[in-house]
Amino acid sequence: MPDMSASASLAMTHLVTIAKEVDEDKVTPGVLGFIVFAAMALAVWALMKSMSRHMNRVEFTQVPDPREPSDPEPSRAESAGTADAGSSGQGKKQV
């Protein structure tokens, strides 16, 4: 078996020189930050796709309520007739 210490020390010398070129005061996210960001982006994409699929299944046509009258606004003749009948005998006594 070849001696691994020689190749390990060679790799370490290359890593040390690369590390010295990097500013020690600068903080970078690194590989872990990229992995977390990519996982979050995939999760948001999957949630958006799922929401879109669920929204496409919803039927937006409004069914009229059977308990409500078909014409919610009374016609002018009906409203005028009820207003006259209600105010005609109030406050007066007929003799």
Give a brief outline of the structure:
This protein is mainly α.
Question: Can you lay out the helices and strands and say which pair or pack?
Answer:
Layout: H1 4-21, H2 30-57, H3 76-87
Search tags:
95 residues; mainly alpha; rod-shaped
Query: How would a textbook summarize the main sheet?
Result: none
Radius of gyration: 40 Å
| SS summary, helix count | 3
Structural class computed from helices and strand pairing: mainly alpha
The helicity comes to 55-70%
The N- and C-terminal alpha carbons lie at a distance of 130 Å
- Beta-sheet strand percentage? under 5%
What is the succession of H and E elements? HHH
Number of strands: 0
Structure description:
The chain is mainly α. Helix content is 61%, strand content 0%. The chain has helices at 4-21, 30-57, 76-87. The longest helix is centred in the middle third of the chain and has 28 residues, at 30-57. It is rod-shaped and about 120 Å long. The mean pLDDT is 74.
